[in-house]
Amino acid sequence: MTNKVCVLGAGSTKYGKLNESIIEIAMSAAKDAIESAGITPKEIQAGYISNVFGVADKQVHMAPVIMSNLGISHVPGLTIESACGSGSVMFREAYANVAAGFYDCVLALGVEKVTHTGTTQSTTLFSYCSDFFYEGGNGASFPGLFASMARAYMTTHKATEEDLAHVAVKNHENGVLNPKAHVRKKITVDDVLKSPVVASPLKLLDCCPFSDGASATILCSEDFAKKSGRPYVEIIGSGRGASPAAVQGREDITTIPSTVAAARAAYKMAGLTPKDIDFAEVHDCFTIAEIIDIEDLGFFPKGKAAHAVRDGATRLNGEIPINPSGGLKSKGHPIGATGVGQVVEVFDQFTGRAGERTVKDAEIALTHNFGATGASAAVHLFRKVDRK
Amino acid sequence: MTNKVCVLGAGSTKYGKLNESIIEIAMSAAKDAIESAGITPKEIQAGYISNVFGVADKQVHMAPVIMSNLGISHVPGLTIESACGSGSVMFREAYANVAAGFYDCVLALGVEKVTHTGTTQSTTLFSYCSDFFYEGGNGASFPGLFASMARAYMTTHKATEEDLAHVAVKNHENGVLNPKAHVRKKITVDDVLKSPVVASPLKLLDCCPFSDGASATILCSEDFAKKSGRPYVEIIGSGRGASPAAVQGREDITTIPSTVAAARAAYKMAGLTPKDIDFAEVHDCFTIAEIIDIEDLGFFPKGKAAHAVRDGATRLNGEIPINPSGGLKSKGHPIGATGVGQVVEVFDQFTGRAGERTVKDAEIALTHNFGATGASAAVHLFRKVDRK
């Protein structure tokens, strides 16, 4: 019913505190993606942008500006927002349009710039992504909401703060190997436990940073990819999901319904199970999120992920490497770009561009990205294409 | 290649200065659309939201909140932004997903709330929709940019300020008949000419107001519509277009390239020409915009629209009624909702809900909505479906 869609090019800026304008940041990633695809901008038929707080850098309506700067001002575009899940939700929309045959080649680019507003203003802005009437408006910021989830998880499954810390340690271990990562610094469990409390039981090193950055991909039909003669990655599954917007509306806060639904849809589409996945980029805005994610995605039984992480199962050489890029925790979290950045990592892994953090013999990868406390989520599955 | 898509339900809040929260405004339109479609929320499979400045009312990531309030928190959604063209660009995306067979029934809802920020802050926020590096950042607000276009048009085509005023007079004449309109007040050419200068040659009554409001539609497959036994409208054409983001990048500022491209694509898809259109809702953020629009859409030869408007050709009983709803000028312009509101007007016209402003014997309608100074645009064509 739908056509095969491929990722033909990918590029990211460094994630971190960037001084360029949001458009300059976006352009840098766009140009890298276009170059890596071996195409010219003229081959792009539509632009899909993901961004949440363009207002913070005084630029919304970004697609026309980006297209104009690429010299293709006649090419239509749009911006998609789904809080911290914007990148993957936008990627899915770009994918769907190519799959339906509306376009042969599109640019899918995520970008965010917030660090110049400072931590307090960024936290305030981000709280607008929650169900503000029930959550943000009553002082519940995301660290607080995830702290509730962490407490519930720890109580239900006898997990400890040390278990959570292992997620951060592992992701920093990977991030050190990623030249584009925001926080390239090895940390220990002790560092995490001794870092300042943000919202108990979460401490500073349980939290991902506020980051600026952009990531871009070129999506195209299989025909287009084959004709290019370039390396590419095939998209074999795509799913979206949703949860009650406010955490208080959920029956069980040790699981995220949108992740479960999105993963189920993506696995079904690809005819795969969690056991078929060789590595995954997942949404670890807080350490507890990664623990919950990898259970919801089916990699570990409910309540078992914390111990699996401690045992090294999710390390680069473990049974299911999670966040080889360093994840949101170390690579960084420019919220509009994050979901696209995960696809960039898959592209880099499958086309020999991941250097020392390459996952050995990987052929199938999963990306998982959600918005807010998981009110929205999307999961994508990718297959390495051998070009002999 | 693609399936037929229909509009089965539609609803709008009153446009104007509203005191409810942005979510309450959205919910009101959503419920009206759902009721008019004769469906229950459970039949909705996805939510497409359009909005630009949710930040101004402290709520982005609106789809999950709206879906949760509708009691369908498991239904995925997203927000699409394309400045003042957000509504139509979002509508096209919802349309494309149903046309591709991904969904049978979706909610397409636009909403905006800005009036509480005041005129100065609204003007500042809106300037972020321009190419801020070249335009907004140098003090060029939208009244100023459209004033340049007006001056160029008037010089090239020997049009007068009085000609422009006729657009406002006609749209207010229609808006008086629309109970949902923001400014329901009959005005004269003299009123317009004597109103305070905003950016010469544009005066206050050449400009549409800042409005709050929401408009919603239910889109579905033809099968779904037929089975419902309810009145519906068929979407027969859809096109998008883009222009250089900054006005200074355009060769001729008396035409908007995105409109021309979007219209061409929509006409081609429907196999129709401008002569087949019985009425149109077009983007009249300023009077000059409507003049340019109706030439770019092919209703009048270049340079002839101003005189045609003066001669009454675009009045409710004219040869091609333009903006029977009152348009942005009188009905109002809640920027995220505007493009959807145009579709609501078509639905109302074609299903006997337009009262005194009903266009006689109309069977084919066009909607046209753009972002900023026309950097992005979408055009849709609709056919009245007789249910005998």
TrEMBL record, chains A, B:
Thiolase N-terminal domain segment(s): 6-223
InterPro entries linked: Thiolase, Thiolase-like, Thiolase_C_2, Thiolase_N
NCBIfam families per UniProt: PRK06064.1
UniProt keyword terms in alphabetical order: Acyltransferase, Isoprene biosynthesis, Transferase
Protein name as annotated: Acetoacetyl-CoA thiolase
EC number(s) on file: 2.3.1.16, 2.3.1.9
Enzyme class, first EC level, given as a word: transferase
Domain Thiolase C-terminal, residue spans: 244-383
Transmembrane segments annotated in the record for this chain: none
Example of a GO biological process term: isoprenoid biosynthetic process
Example of a GO MF term: acetyl-CoA C-acetyltransferase activity
Family annotation (SUPFAM superfamilies): Thiolase-like (SSF53901)
